[in-house]
Amino acid sequence: DTLSTNEQLRELGWMIGKWIDKDDAVQIETECQWILNHRFIDCNFKVSFEGKENFSGKQLIGWDPDKMQIRSWIYDSD
Known about the structure:
Elements: H1 5-9, E1 17-22, E2 26-35, E3 40-49, E4 52-64, E5 69-76
Antiparallel strand pairs: 1-2, 2-3, 3-4, 4-5
């Protein structure tokens, strides 16, 4: 299959935007955007516990042409 990277990642387009998930104690904020001509999705996230940021990070999502699959890499504040 010779689909371009843009086409391979199209199914993940629903992730683009700002997302908040929370309950009484924990809040998780995530923001995802297309980068590098729609070849990657860049997501930044932070986790707050009782109003204080405890953890943050970044996830990059892209197409691996060697393995012919979507891959992601996660980097965090720890």
